[in-house]
Amino acid sequence: TCCCRLLPRLGHLLPPEAVQARVPEMVAALCQILAFVQEETLTLVIATLTALIKQHPTTPLGTLPAEVLHLWAKHRSDPMATESIVELYSAISRSTNPSTAQVLQEGVLPALFNLMDQSKDLPGLAESAVDVVTEITKHSLCGEAAVRMALGRVCGMLLDCEDHTMVQCGSGCLRAMVWRGGEWLPGFEVEVPNHGRARTPELLLQVLQSLYSRDYGDTQLALNFSGALIG
Question: Which among 8, 61, 117, 207 counts the fewest CB atoms within 10 Å?
Fold first, then answer.
């Protein structure tokens, strides 16, 4: 516990270059600890990892982003662990290391989609998975790829979901996707589960109409949508 509290403070005690050189070792050691840590100290270890990654965004993280998924599966019924893991992914998403973006794209995003589909019996878990997708979309180097991979799935969820909290999370994710999408977005055609294929403008209009018809109207989403088509 004392070591976990000390590690993020090393940057204030030692020369930056000395700390930076050791960060990969610290991350690896903390990952090993996560494999057998007790529940009462789990969130502390995760918070330490989060702080280190925020302070050193260029650090190569190896397979850590994918390994955290196994940790999440193990503690998926613990809301505090889930909250800490979402914060950890928020930090990972801001990594400026290209190898981290590749792991997020190839290993984490597909698993998050499965989590969104399979977590209906655990309140809050699907919403947290959507929140992580939002963070990856907004901040990761693979954000544009995330839009291409997740747009149809998130739109399908918004068209079919009746849970207000889930709709709020999904709307925030879709706002991030419309904001992050490039010039290709208006001409992008996507497969939507249970709804077939559609071009992005028609699909977003359908989502907006559906949300407003159910009193889930999202003004910011409408503005982002309009801006994407204009600009």
Answer: 117
Q: Give the contacts of 71 (CB within 8 A, at least 6 positions apart).
A: 34, 81, 85
Q: How far is CA 159 from CA 3, 89, 122, 148, 162, in A?
A: 47, 27, 21, 18, 9
Report the range of poorest mean pLDDT among 7-21, 183-197, 211-225: 7-21
Residue 118 near residue 81 (C-beta atoms within 8 A) = no
The amino acid at 205: L
User: Bridge partners of 67?
Assistant: none
- Residue 26 is predicted with a pLDDT of 79
Provide the whole-model pTM.
0.86
130, pLDDT greater than 90: yes
pLDDT in tens, 52-66: 888 888 988 988 999
Enter the tokens of residue 126: 């699907």
Residue 38 to residue 2: CA distance in whole angstroms: 15
SS3 readout for 27-86: HHHHHHHHCCCCHHHHHHHHHHHHHHHHHCCCCCCCCHHHHHHHHHHHCCCCHHHHHHHH
DSSP helix/strand/coil, 199: strand
- What the block records as the tokens of 117 is 């589909």
> Cβ(42)–Cβ(84) under 8 Å?
yes
Q: What does pLDDT average to over the chain? A: 83
